[in-house]
Amino acid sequence: MSAPFKVTRGTNSLAAYCNTLKSLENSMQDLLRDAKDKFRSWVACAGFENVELAYKKVENNDYPIRVWKVSIELNATPYVALQYILREQHTWDSSLQQSKILDTLDEDTEIYHYSTESMPPIPCKEYVILR
């Protein structure tokens, strides 16, 4: 495995954090615009039973791949569903090897590291995400 990810705070980190906030705000605006248009720009795909799966192609260079959307109805509050996704990955991701929170930036933002196993001879995949 590679060396642990180190989080530093400083001028560059503040600029990156502000850019991330702006990117998240833009993503939220895109989502609200799509919802207002009733997701007409999305292409539906066959998937699992009771799961809506769709993708769309994005016209700018910010997203070199398709953007995917998945929705499902749950008998849980949004908070409970979010906590299940964020805190209990080991219960729903069978390829998960390890996970940890590297840093908590504020009460709603953290830097999260996890690794998943792959089929041999492909090495495990590691991810560091801002969530």
From TrEMBL:
Domain annotation START: ranges: 26-131
GO biological process, one term: actin cytoskeleton organization
Recorded GO MF terms: GTPase activator activity; lipid binding
PROSITE patterns on file: START
UniProt keyword annotations, A-Z: GTPase activation, Phosphoprotein
InterPro entries named in the record: START-like_dom_sf, START_lipid-bd_dom
Protein's recorded name: START domain-containing protein
